[in-house]
């Protein structure tokens, strides 16, 4: 798929370039891979958007949800800056928190804001909290395990969104899934850390679910959207002092996937039961 190809090409080219430069400049090239993974994921999603007919237009034409594409770009740019080698950890979290507030101010559905003023701060806090948790988990166990877990969450979002009759948002979720899974495999093959791509992925996942919920009046229960959006928070288990050492074990990957898979499967089951897909027969098409 275009998203996977775009992510893999960028990851490979930049990693080889940085590795070659490290010999001349005497630095550890692996410290740049988290930043490279963010750039690769961003290119993968952009490539997917382009080849799927631009579900998100580059130039907003007055619809509030068109700003989500730029909001996702802000998230990727913020994560890239925070992952520049040498940027202090606390400064990175400050950048992410600020970006979460800006994104929430522009992309929180207007209908929700009319319903209650606390939706914007709630969206900002939700984005910042989930973003911070996934980032921390990824740092505890560098590699591809956290990114693989977030790929599963993105896949779950695509299931809920397709049953919500949101094909454009579904396409972007699938693109995110393939890009993240590609980077997870790349991390395992190269022995590097692509957790940053998984951390920033929470932003487009939550935004896509929020927009799907706000724009389409479907029978899918709200809990399906909330369960997928909150699924990454199950990874906070790995931040417990007694579980931190587990992050570096070979079984960490299937365990992380299992943790996020439970709420994702519940959400998918409820969505499929509430709004099953209907495939037209040849006779019905005519």
Automatic annotation (TrEMBL):
Keyword tRNA-binding appears in the UniProt entry: no
Domain of life: Bacteria
Transmembrane domains' residue ranges: 30-52, 64-85, 91-109, 116-134, 146-162, 169-189, 195-216, 223-240, 260-280
Keywords: Membrane, Transmembrane, Transmembrane helix
UniProt keyword Membrane present: yes
Protein name from the UniProt record: Uncharacterized protein
Species in which this protein is naturally found: Fimbriiglobus ruber
Source taxonomy: Bacteria, Pseudomonadati, Planctomycetota, Planctomycetia, Gemmatales
């Amino acid at each position: 798929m275009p998203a996977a190809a775009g992510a893999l090409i960028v990851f490979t080219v930049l990693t080889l370039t940085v590795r070659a430069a490290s010999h001349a400049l005497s630095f550890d090239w692996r410290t740049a891979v988290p930043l490279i993974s963010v750039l690769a994921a961003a290119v993968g999603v952009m490539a997917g958007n382009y080849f799927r007919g631009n579900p998100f237009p580059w130039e907003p034409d007055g619809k509030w949800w068109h700003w989500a594409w730029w909001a996702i770009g802000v998230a990727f740019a913020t994560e890239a800056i925070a992952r520049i080698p040498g940027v202090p950890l606390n400064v990175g979290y400050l950048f992410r928190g600020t970006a979460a507030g800006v994104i929430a101010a522009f992309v929180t559905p207007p209908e929700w804001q009319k319903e209650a003023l606390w939706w914007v701060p709630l969206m900002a806090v939700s984005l910042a909290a989930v973003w911070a948790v996934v980032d921390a988990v990824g740092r505890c166990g560098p590699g591809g395990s956290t990114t693989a877990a977030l790929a599963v969450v993105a896949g779950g979002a695509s299931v809920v969104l397709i049953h919500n009759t949101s094909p454009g948002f579904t396409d972007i979720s699938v693109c995110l899934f393939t890009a993240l899974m590609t980077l997870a495999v790349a991390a395992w093959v190269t022995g590097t850390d692509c957790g940053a791509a998984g951390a920033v992925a929470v932003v487009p996942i939550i935004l896509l679910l929020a927009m799907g919920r706000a724009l389409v009046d479907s029978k899918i229960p709200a809990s399906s959207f909330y369960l997928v959006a909150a699924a990454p928070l199950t990874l906070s288990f790995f931040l417990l002092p007694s579980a931190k050492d587990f992050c570096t074990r070979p079984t960490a990957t299937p365990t992380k996937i299992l943790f996020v898979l439970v709420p994702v499967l519940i959400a998918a089951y409820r969505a499929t039961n509430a709004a099953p897909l209907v495939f037209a027969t040849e006779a019905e098409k005519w």
